[in-house]
Specification:
The chain starts with a helix and ends with a helix. By secondary structure, it is an all-alpha fold. Residues about 1-30 have low confidence and may be disordered. Helix content is about 85%, strand content about 0%. The longest helix has 29 residues, at about 1-30.
């Protein structure tokens, strides 16, 4: 009797998951973002960089990181994503799908905030962060002059300065959010 009830419960759960998956797929398909046109490498990079940025901001808020160190982490994630982007895609792709990649980044920042707030941040999440931390350094250390030139970057230092400005704007915006949440 118990086994029969367990099987019935399992069937209900499976039906629920199938319906949920179908709804989410339909929802994604209905969006104009053409999710299937996104590059898996860039999805992974946006996700990782969002996790690292969220963790850095949380560490700043809790006093683990100074403001400058947290800013450096957000700058690094911003630069790393762009360098990953130009390594795998052309600039037109990055422009066309910027909102979608930004959305993935933002979702991961929020996910880290939520995990910390609900005290659900665990060693598995820390392991994900460790993989992401290792991952962001690859584009920072392996980008070629050719990768930069094909998107019109002649002066890497000027480009880095501009990335710093944009990343600092993002960081300042997050500071406003953190302050508003208090």
């Amino acid at each position: 009797m118990f086994l029969l009830e367990l099987i019935m419960l399992l069937k209900i759960v499976i039906k629920f998951l199938v319906i949920l998956f179908a709804f989410q797929f339909t929802y994604l398909k209905a969006q104009e973002n053409n999710f299937l046109n996104l590059d898996p490498e860039l999805i992974a990079a946006a996700s990782c960089n969002g996790m690292i940025a969220g963790n850095s901001l949380s560490n700043f808020e809790s006093g683990i990181l100074t403001e400058e160190r947290a800013r450096v982490m957000v700058r690094t994630t911003t630069l790393s994503f762009f360098l990953t982007g130009i390594k795998f895609q052309d600039i037109d792709h990055l422009r066309k799908y910027q909102k979608e990649y930004d959305s993935i980044f933002q979702e991961e920042v929020q996910r880290i905030f939520n995990l910390i707030e609900t005290e659900s941040f665990d060693w598995d999440i820390q392991a994900e962060l460790d993989v992401c931390s290792a991952r962001i350094f690859e584009p920072l250390t392996s980008i070629s002059r050719n990768n930069l030139e094909k998107v019109g970057i002649d002066d890497y230092f000027e480009f880095s300065r501009l990335v710093k400005i944009e990343a600092d704007k993002l960081f300042d915006f997050y500071l406003k959010i953190i302050e508003a949440m208090k």
